[in-house]
Amino acid sequence: MNIRYFAWVRERVGIEEEELEIPGVVKTVGDLIAHLKSLDANHAAAFEEEEAIRVALDQVHVEADAALGNAKEIAFFPPMTGG
Length: 83
Known about the structure:
Blueprint: E1 2-5, H1 7-13, E2 17-19, H2 29-37, H3 41-46, E3 54-57, E4 60-62, E5 73-77
Parallel strand pairs: 1-5
Antiparallel strand pairs: 1-2, 3-4, 3-5
């Protein structure tokens, strides 16, 4: 799965994107976040405020309980404001 990071999430992880093989036990966005947090200190720091992070699966906004299904891409980003 292609995983993309934006804004301060990218800064904390230290990379813009990565391609990861997702373990079979990872079924939801929340499961994936837990898995990513276990990878290393950078990922753990990026997701320490996971309730503030927004998620898109194949460019569609979803919640943490969304199933990953056959998604090809997941993106993590902070809330956006505009004006």
